[in-house]
User: Fold these one by one.
Assistant:
Number 1:
Amino acid sequence: MDTPEKTQIAAPPVSAHEDSPVFNFIRSLSPIKPVKSAHIAQTFTSLPFTSLPSVFTSPHANFHKDPSFLRRHQSLDPSNPNRSSENHNIVCRNGDFTNGISQKREISDKKVSVEVHAEPCKEHSDFATEFPQNLRHIFYNPEGNLTGCSADAESAVETAGMSTPIIPVVVKSPEKPLPEGEGQQQNKEWPIDASDLFIFSSPNDAEAFRELIQRSPDFGTVCLSSLMSRFTPDDVTGFERLQQVDLLSREQQQIEEPPYPTEEAYEQKEMIKNLDFHNLDKFLDKYMSIQLDKNSHNDAGTSMPFDYAPVPNFHRGLRRRCLDFEIAELCKLSGDDSDYSHMALSQHDENTLVNEGQLPVKSEGDPLRCTLPGIGLHLNALATTSNDYQSVEHENLLSENQLMNTQISSSSLNLPNAHQSLHESLTSVVSEDIGSTDNGVLVVQDGSQSCAYPDGEELDHNSPQKKRRKAEHSEDGACKRCNCKKSKCLKLYCECFAAGVYCIEPCSCLDCLNKPIHENTVLATRKQIESRNPLAFAPKVIRASDSFPDTGDDSNKTPASARHKRGCNCKKSGCLKKYCECYQGGVGCSFNCRCEGCKNSFGRKDGSTLISVEAEVIEEGKENFEKSMGNQGSLEIMKQRDPIQATPSAYYRPSNQNTYSAKNEPPQSTSFVTTSSSSVLHASQNQGQLKHIALQPEFEKHYDNNNNNNKNNVGGKMPEVLRSNDTPNTVIKTTSPNGKRVSSPHSDFGSSPPLRSGRRLILKSIPSFPSLTQH
DNA sequence: GAGTTTGAAACT
DNA sequence: CAGTTTCAAACTC
C-alpha cells in the first residue's frame, strides 16, 4: 500500500523540534522527576463521576458506542479504499484496540505484529481524568506510517464504572522497518516537537498546529497527553516523564481539574480527542472559532461556533438513563467485535447524517449497515439520571441539543454539497454529540420521535399545533416521559420503555418498574418482548438515507427516505395526526401501511404526494392527454391507470385505496411508467427534498432508462436511490427472526392480484427496516 | 385538567 | 392470522 503520508512522517530535523513552541514550552516546565506509576483504575475510582444507573452495570452495557471511534474505524473499512488510504489516523477508543488492529490487518497483506501493553497511568487524579481522554496511541501500520490511536478511557470509566486499563498499543510491521526517524523517536528523549508526532497533510498544517499550541497552553497541555502515547511500552521512563511533564505543566498553569473546569476545556479536549490531523486546517478553524467565540460569549454552552454542541461540563459524568441493551446483546449474539463495529458504524453513519441531513437518519442502504436494526433506540439518552437531574441543567442540555439540531439542520440545508471534507473532519465531533452522550449511548437514533417535527419545521409559529409541539419539544425534548398507569412501564405502551430508557422523575407513571432498581425485571421483560418481536425495540422509523452516496446531495438525506418499520394502521386520523406513527415520525406512509384515507403530508402510501412541479407537469400532461384523447375517455383511462392522477385535485387528496379497482393493473406502458415515476417520487413540498421512493421494480428499470429525460427527478438522485435501496430489501421479509411479519403486507387496496404481486416487488425495492441477521 | 379519540400493543 | 381487549398518547373542550 502506497501511502502518501509516508513521506510526511519523516521526522523534521531535531533542530526544528528544539525551536518549536512546544519544545520551549516543555522546556520551561519544572524539572522532571520520576513518578511511580499507578494503575489507571485506581485513579478512575477517585473520579468525581456520579454514580451510574445500575443499568449500565448490566451485562449489556459494557460495550461502548463511540461514533468517532467508529468513524475512524470506518476508514479502515477495506471496502472503502479511498478512506483507508486517505486517512491513516486510526483512532481506537473505548479500548477496542484489537478490533482496530484486526481490521487494520485485514487491509494489508503484510503481517502485523501487535503489541499490547497495559501501561499504568499515574496517580494524579487530575491528570488521570484528562489523560485517558486524550491519550493517543501510536499505530505503525505495515508501511510504518504513524497513526494515532486514542483510547477513550473516559467512556470506559464512565460506563463500566471504572477500571479499564489504558492500553497503549503499538503495531509494528516486522517486515518493514520503521521510517527513519520514527524508530529513533521512540527512543528519543522527551520532549520533542508535538507537531512531528502527528501526520500533517502539509507543512502548513504542522506550522498551524505549532501555532495553535503556542496560542493556547491548555491546548498544548492536552496535546502533551496525546503525545504520551508516543512512547512504546519499552519507553517507560519516557512515558513516566511525560506524565510528569503533563502534571507539572498543569500545576504550573494552575489548571483546575477535575474533571473539566470549563466547557472550553472540555471543548478543546473533545476536539483533540476527535482530532483528525489530516484535516488540521479545519480543526484549527473550529478551534479558533471557539477561541473567538469565547471572547464574545463567555457562555460557551449556549453559543456554539459550529455544529458542535459539547456536553456541558456539568453533564459530564452523568450517565444517561438509557437501557443499553441492544448493542450489548447484539455483541453477545455476534460475539464478534467487528460485527459490532459494522453495526456501530451504521449507527454512526446515521448520526453522521444528522449532520448532513435535517434529521437523524437511519442507515439502511448498506446491508452491512442494517444488519442490526433495533440498535440503540434510546430516545432520551439525553436525559440525565434521576439522581442528578436538575431542571436547570436539563433545560440547558435540551436547549443545547435543540440548538445543535437547528444548527445542523440549517447548515446542512445551506451547504448541500459540503460533505466529504466536512464529513471527514467534523462528523466525529458532531456525531459524537448527537449520536452519543458521554457514555456513548446513542441518542436520537429514532430522531423522528424526538427531533422531527412532523411538519418539517414549517409550522405556523402561532398555531396551537406549533405551540404544542414546541412545548413538547422543550419539555421532554429527546426525553420521553410516560404517563403509564397500568402497564408498570414494562410494556411497549410505555414510551420510555419502548424507547429503551428508564423512567425518570418527570414521568407520571404509576407503579413504575422501569427503573434502574428493577433492572433485572426490565431486562427480563424486554427480553421477553424481544423474543416475541425482535424488532420491538427497533427504531420505528427506519431511515434509508445513507443509501445515498456520500457524494449525494444533502437534501436527499431527509426523513423522506425513511419509512416506518411496520407502517401505520390508521383508520380515522388520515395519517395527519400524531396518532399515526408515520406522521409522528415525520415520514410518509408507505406500502407497508394499512392506513385508510391516508393524507400523510409526508407522503401518502399511494405515493401521490408530489412536489408542486411534478404535479404541474403531470397536470399538464394530463390536460394534453385529455385534449388529444378527448375529454370523455381520457379521464376514465387515467382513472384506470392511476386514480390519484385521474383528478387534478387528487394529487393532494387522501388516497382512496378502494379506488384501485380490480381492473387496476400494474403499470406497463413506458409512458405511464415515466409519468408514474414522477408521481411516485415524493418530495417535500417545501424543502424540495426527495421524500419518498416507492417505485416498483418496473419503474426502476424505466427510470434508469429514462432518467436522463426525466427533468422532474429531484436532485437527479433517483438512480442511486433505487440502486442502493435494492440490496437491503432482499432481506426484508426473510430476516424477521421469528418469521413475524414486520413489513406489513396487509393490503387494504391490494384487492387485485396484480397489485398484490406488484407490491411484493415493491417491498423488495424499498428498504423498510434492517434485518437482524447478517447477510 | 377531564374526558374523548385513536391506534399500537397485547391478548385470545 | 384475525379479532378483541388493553393501554396510553394524542387530542379536544
Number 2:
Amino acid sequence: MENQPSNGRKAMEEELNKGRDTANQLLQILVHKSNTRHSDAEVEGLVLPFAEDLARKVLRSFSNTLLLLNTHTDVSDGVVMPVTVNDVSSSLKCPNLEDKDGVCKGSINAKRRRVSHKRNAPTWEKNSSHLMEDGYIWRKYGQKMTINAKYLRSYYRCTHKYDQGCPATKQVQRVQENPPLYRTTYYGHHNCKISLSPEIMLEPDSSSDSSMFLSFSTTFPEEKYQFSSSVFSSTKQEPMEVIPDECGIHNQLPSSDYNLLSDYELDFNCLRHDTMQSMPSSTESVQFDKVYGSGMDFDG
DNA sequence: AACATTTGACCCCC
DNA sequence: GGGGGTCAAATGTT
C-alpha cells in the first residue's frame, strides 16, 4: 500500500509516457524533415498534418495528466475518479442552475434567486505573474473590492453557463503589485462542449481507449486567437482592456479573458505559429493542494 | 443590432 | 450585520 503506485499515479504515468513517446515521434519527423529535401507542397501535405496530429497527442497527454491531478483529491491515495466526457454530459441539463425549488437560476423567473459560490471549495487555484488565456471562453459578470485585498476581484463564468449549463466559474484576484501577481481560482468543472475550439473537441482517436477528459484547442483560428504578446484572446474581438484599479497595466488582454493559459496550450501555440514567444514566467505556479475531487459540487 | 462589460443592488451565509 | 457572490439594467464596443 505504501510504496505501491496508486491508480491515479499510474494513470498519470501512462499519460506522461504516452506524451513522451509521441513527442519523440514528432522530433523524429522534424529531424527527418530537416535532413531531406522535400518540396514545400510535400511538406505541407504530408509532414505537417502528421506532425500536428502528434503534437495534439502530446498536448492531450499533458491535459489528461493535469486533469487527473485536478480530479483527485489526493494523488497518492489512489482514489481515481476521472470526469469523463460521458459523465459530464450527463449532467448537462441545467445541473447546477436549478435550485431546490427547481427554478433554473438562469431563467428570468429566477430573479434575485441566487446561490452563492463562495462556500464551495475551489477546484483549483493558480498564481501567475501575468494574466493569460486558458483556452476557455469566460464572461465577466462582476467585480468587487474585498476586505482583505488591495485590489479588485473579478468574477467570471463560462460563457456557456446558460446555453449548456456549464457551472465553471473563476475569480481573478490581483494579489501583488510589484512584481505583479494574480491568483486565479477556478470553481466547478466545465461541462460545456464548445468552450474550446470546436474543431477538435472530444477527438475520439486519442490513441487510447481511455476516457477523454478534456480536449484542448490546438487549432486556434487566427481571427479569434491573435498573438498579443504572449497571450491569446479567446473571445470575440474585444478591446484590449485594463481592469480598473486591478491590472490596468501590462495585461493587454481582453477583459473577459485575462485568464491563465496553461503552459501546454501556450507551448503548442508557439509551435503552431512558429513564433517562439516568451514562455510563462517562472513565477507561475499551480496549486493542487486545493483540489477537492471531481464532483460538481457547485451547488451542493 | 448583438454582445460584452460595468456597476449598483440584492441576497445568502457566517 | 457584514462580507462575498451574483444579478441585471445601463452603458460601451464592434
Number 3:
Amino acid sequence: MTTINDIAKMANVSRTTVSRVLNNNGYVSESARERVMKVVEATGYIPSVSAKSLRTKRSGVIGVILPKISTETASRVVGGINEVVAKEGFQILLTDTELNHEKEIEYIRLLHSRHVDGIILLATNVNDRLLNTIEDANLPFISLGQELPGVTSIVYDDYHASRDMTHMIIKKGHKKIAYIGVGEDDPAVGVLRKQGFIETIQEAGLEVEESWIRYGDFSIESGYESMKQIVEASPGNLPTAVFVVTDRMAVGAMEYLKEQGLRIPQDIAITGIGASVMSKYVSPSLTTIDYFNKEAGTMAAELLLEQLQDKNTKKKFLQNYRLIERDSV
Amino acid sequence: MTTINDIAKMANVSRTTVSRVLNNNGYVSESARERVMKVVEATGYIPSVSAKSLRTKRSGVIGVILPKISTETASRVVGGINEVVAKEGFQILLTDTELNHEKEIEYIRLLHSRHVDGIILLATNVNDRLLNTIEDANLPFISLGQELPGVTSIVYDDYHASRDMTHMIIKKGHKKIAYIGVGEDDPAVGVLRKQGFIETIQEAGLEVEESWIRYGDFSIESGYESMKQIVEASPGNLPTAVFVVTDRMAVGAMEYLKEQGLRIPQDIAITGIGASVMSKYVSPSLTTIDYFNKEAGTMAAELLLEQLQDKNTKKKFLQNYRLIERDSV
DNA sequence: CTGAAAGCGCTTACAG
DNA sequence: CTGAAAGCGCTTACAG
C-alpha cells in the first residue's frame, strides 16, 4: 500500500506538507501543492483511516443501533440518516440488537471503542444501565423514537397520534373499540399509544372490555393471533372497530377477519400506525398514521452533526405526524 | 480514555503481557492473566480499534455496498449478512449508491481506505472500471445478485425463474402476455429475466407485441405507468396476462388495472418476482418468486468469512428460488 | 512557506 | 513465561 511517506518522497516534500495539502490546512506553496496532487492522483493514494483516526480521535463514522435491521421503519430511518451524513463524508456503522436490550448497551460500548464520532440509537426501552452507558461513552448521541432523559431525543408524538386516531374512530360512530398493542416495556409504542387510546375512549364516555385488549410483538402473525383471540373471546359481542398500534399487526388482524368472512370496515373497522408501503395496497387500504420516519432520520443526523460541532442542543424534539384516512374505517 | 499502558501499569505487567491476555495468544502465567483481567473489568477498558487496525491491517469491519438502503430486498440481505458476521465479532459498514454506478467504484475505494476486511457488493451492473477497482482493492470480495467475472458471485437464477414463471402463465392458457421490465444495463434483472421470458414465449410458439413490452425503474409508480401505457396502446386488444420483473412494479400495475375496473386475474393476470411481504397481502395476492434474499445474504457473509481465512473459493453460486402461486393468475 | 520530531495505542518479532 | 523496542501511517505543535 502506498503511504504518506511514499507520496512525500515522490513529490519531493515532507510528509507534513503532504498532510497539509490533503487536509487543506496550513500554508502550502502552490508549486508544492501541485506536485503533491499530481502524485496523489497518479498513485490513487488514499490515506489510512485507522492511522488518521488514531491520531485525531475522529473516525468519520456514525454508529447506528437498530432494534431490527430488516424492517421498513428502520430502513427508512437509516436512509434518512445516510442521506445527510454521506454528504458530509461520514459512513454508517450498523448494528442490530434484534430487540435484545442487553445488546443496546453492548453496542454502545463497542461503537465507542471503534471511535465512532457519534451514535444514533433507535431505542426500544429505557433503563438506568442504558443511560449510564450512554453517559460513560460521552459521545454525541441521539435517541430516536424514545425519550431518554439527558440525551437529545427525537420522538414521535405517539400520545397525540393515538388520540387523533381514536377520536376519528369514535367520530365515525364506533362505540365498541378493541385494542391491539405491544408490551409496556416499550414506553413509546407500548405505553404512550395505549394511553392516548384509553384516555380518549374514556373521555368519550366509552369503555373497553378487558377481553378486547391484546398484545402482540410487532409481527404480522401476532396481529393475526390477537385479532383471533379477541373475536373468539367475544362471541355475539364483537367490537366494531380495532385500534392496532402498528401497520404490520393491523395487516395480520385484517387477514384473520377476512378469513372469517368479516367485512372491513362494515363489520369491523381497523386502523394502523406507520404508513408502511403495504398499508396503501392491502384491501381495503389501511387507515394509518404517517410518522415521517425518513425525515426523523434526517433530523437525527442533522442534530448529531450539530453536536459534533459542539453546538450543544440537548433537547427533546417532537416529530410531526399525519393521519391518513383510507378505506379500512 | 484508558489505554493499554494504564492497564499495564495498574496490573504491574508490561503492555506486551496485557496484549497477550487480551488476544489470548502467547504464554501468560495464570497470576498475570488474573491481575490483568481484574483491572480490565474494573476499568471497563476497551482496546482502541484504530490502533489495533493500524497495526494489524485488520479492522473487524465488513463493507456492504447497497444500491438502495431502504428497500425490502436490501434490508433482508443485510439482515442475513449481519446475522453471520455479528457472530464472528464483525461489524457492517454500510454504503448506499442510490443506484449511481459511479458510487459503486467510489465506495469500494473508500471502504478499502477504511481497512475493511472484506466487501459485499449488491451490484446492479457490470463494467470494466468496476472490475478493475475490485481487483486493485485486492480484498476478499463477494458480488451478490450479479455475476462479476473473476470475483465470487452469488446470483439468483433469474433466467430459470423467469422461464418457470412464464411457463406457468402459459400453462394457465394465456397466449397474449405482456412484459414490464427494467433497463438492460442491469444484467440480472434487465437482461436475464427478459431473456427467460422471451425465450419461453417463443418456444411456445407465441409472440409478444412490441407495444406490450415496457420498462420501469423498480418503483411502484413506474409499474403503474407501464401498465397504463400497455393498456392505452392496445385498445380492443389487451393482453390477458402481464409478466412483471419485480413485485413492486407488479403492485403498481395491479393498482392501475383495479382503477380501470379490470379484474385480476379474470381480465388480466399479473405476476411479480421477489416475494415481498406486500405481495402476500395485496388483493388478489400476488403470484411471485421467492429468491430467499436473507439466505443469499447469509451465504455471502459465509463465503466472505471463508475468503478471510484464505480458503480461496472464487466461484459462481446459483441461489435457489421458489415459485409461489397465489391468486393473481 | 516548510520540515523534523513526537506521539496516538496497539502488536509482534526478538532476546532473555 | 516476560518485557523493551520497533513500527503501523498519520497529524500537529514547534522552530525556523
Number 4:
Amino acid sequence: MNRKEDIILKAARLFRKKGFSSSSMRDIAGSVGIEAPSLYNHIKSKHEILEIILLEIAEDFTNGMNSICESDKKASQLLKEIIDLHITLTIKKTDQIGLLTHEWINLTGAAREKFLKLRNDYELNFKKVIEKGMMEGEFKKLHIDLTLFSTLSTLRWLYAWYKSNQDMDIDRLRSDMYTLLVDGLTQGLD
Amino acid sequence: MNRKEDIILKAARLFRKKGFSSSSMRDIAGSVGIEAPSLYNHIKSKHEILEIILLEIAEDFTNGMNSICESDKKASQLLKEIIDLHITLTIKKTDQIGLLTHEWINLTGAAREKFLKLRNDYELNFKKVIEKGMMEGEFKKLHIDLTLFSTLSTLRWLYAWYKSNQDMDIDRLRSDMYTLLVDGLTQGLD
DNA sequence: GTCTATATATTGATAGAC
DNA sequence: GTCTATCAATATATAGAC
C-alpha cells in the first residue's frame, strides 16, 4: 500500500468517527504519521479525499448491481443477491460505507452530481427488482417506494451493526437477513 | 413562538441540510433574520443548540417507549405501538429526528453521555419486546440484535422518506410498515 | 435585545529549504 | 517527499454602544 492509499484509508476512518467537517487536515496527517502540508504531495485537497472515497464505493455498488440485473432470475433471488452484495461490501469496506449515507452532503460540483447519479441509478435498479416481484405475484403488493426505502435502510445500516459484531458467523448473518428482508415480502400471501 | 424557540427550529433545519459542523453561527443567525452575536442573548453556545435539540427528541422517544412498555400486551402489539411512536414523532419533528442518527457525534461531555444513555435505554426496551416475541413463540427465532438493528434502521430512516413523500396517506403508511416490520417476524412460522 | 467592532483560535492551503 | 513557517479566510464568541 502506497502513501496515497494510506491517506485515503486513514481519512475514511476519521471521517466516519468524527465527520468530514470536524476532521482537519492536521488530524488526517497525524493519523498517517506525517505533517499536514505533506498531504498535498499526494492529494489535491481535503474535498478530493472525500470524492475519491465516495465515488469508489458508489461505483462498487453500481457495478455489483449491474451484474445482478443482467440475469433474469426471479425477484426473490435477485433480492438475495443484492443482500449478498451489501454484506460483502460492508465487510470489505466498513468505514467507506459509513460515509455513504451522510457525508455526501459535503460533496460539491461535478463530484456531487456524479455521486447522486450513481446513487439514483442504483436505487432505480433496486426498485425494478421490487416491482418485478410485486407484478409477478411473488411479493406482497405494498407501497413500492416505502418497501425500497425500508429494505435499503437496513442494508445501509448494516455497517454500523457489523462494526460491533464482527465475530458473527457470516452465513448466519446472510440467512437472517434473507428472513428479515425477503420473507416479510413473500410469506403470508393470500 | 419566542426567539429562542425560533433559533432552535431554524438551526435544526440547517443542521439537517448541511450538517452541524458545516453550519456556522452566521448561517443560523441569517435564517432567523438577525446578526450572529445576537444569538448569544438567547443561547450559550453553538453546542448548546445541538444539545437542546438532541436531548429533547431523545426524551420524546424515551417517554413514548416507557408508556408502551408499561402494558402487558403481546409483543406484536407492542411492536406496532413502537412503530406508531416513530411515525408520530417523524411527522411532528422531521428535522430533529434527522439529526438523531449522525449529529450526536458532535456532542461532548455530559450531554453526550446523557444522550447515549437515553439511546441505549431505548434500545434495551426495544430489545426486550423482540425477545418477548421470540420467547413466547410469536416471532421467529432470529439473531436478536440483528432483528433489533434491522427494525430500528427502517424506523430511523423513515424521516428521510417522509420528507419527500409528505402526501402519503398516514393510515396506509402505518399499515405498510406493520406488514414490512411485523409480518416478516410473525408469518411463515412452522 | 440588537447591533458594530473585534479578539482569538483554527481552518485549508502554499512557499520554499532540505 | 517531507519539513517549518506562514498566509488568508473563517470560525465561535465577547465587549460595549445604543
